[in-house]
Amino acid sequence: MLLTVEYSYFLLITIIIMATLYSSVGHGGASGYLAAMALFDLSPDTMKPAALIMNIFVATFVLWRLSRERYLNWRLFLPIAIGSIPFAFIGGGVTLDENYYKLIIGALLMLAALHMIFRIPVHENIVPVKMWLALLFGAVLGFVSGLTGIGGGIYLSPLLLLLSWTTMRESAAIAAGFILVNSIAGLSGYLSTSDQMPSGIPVLVICALSGAILGARLVVHSASVTLLRRMLGVVLIIAGTKMIFA
């Protein structure tokens, strides 16, 4: 990956900030990394594999942190993961035209912004999981994850909460596991059809992981969480608009 002197350091700083803010409010940050790369006009050939690799490292850390507290609901996670993995692999092997890629990413960033700005109500009563629906959600989000490099967790979490399938913390753990398995599958699909990996990705991974670790150590009260989420939502809207109208 070629980073010009004019903005390379600003991109790295933005990745660190995104990872820190996302981690501090319980998210992996995949949409944030794509937003940062979109703001600095990186090409889709770089954005997709870079996002998938950053997802793998950061989601591993987030999942380890949450699983230590036993928040991962395996009964719900497994059908979603089983439905998603093959489709993430297929999506990872698909190469979109640059214009279509930008339109899709722009729209997905807009949807992620809505999730950040408007809080999803959390219901106290957990309802039984419909396995066929879990498999379907996994398949659709898995394909989108592999196709674009966006983790899918930011869309899975609100779905789980809206359906009253899980608690807030459990949804974060399931989303982290979902991002991890689908990013691995998506990257495998990408490598099966491409023999080139953009250079410079390791430094992006280091920045993302450093920000995630820093964000996990931050203690923010509820008002701060709301403000951070809305700020991130505004950034996602700006990046999404830039992708759509570029």
Layout of strands and helices, then pairs:
Layout: H1 8-24, H2 30-39, H3 44-67, H4 74-92, H5 98-117, H6 131-148, H7 153-162, H8 168-193, H9 201-217, H10 222-245
Helix pairs in contact: 1-2, 1-9, 1-10, 2-3, 2-10, 3-8, 3-9, 4-6, 4-8, 5-10, 6-8, 7-8
What do these coordinates show?
This protein is mostly helical. The protein has one domain. The radius of gyration is 17 Å and the shape is globular. It starts with 7 loop residues before the first helix and ends with a helix.
State the helical fraction. Answer: over 70%
Helix/strand class: mainly alpha
- Report the total helices: 10
Percentage of β-strand residues: under 5%
Order of helices and strands: HHHHHHHHHH
CA gyration radius, whole angstroms: 17 Å
Oligomer: single chain
**What is the overall silhouette?**
globular
Biggest sheet details: none
Beginning-to-end CA distance, first to last residue: 21 Å
Low-confidence stretches: 1-7
- Counting structural domains, the number is 1
Number of beta-strand segments: 0
Mean of all residue-level pLDDT scores = 83
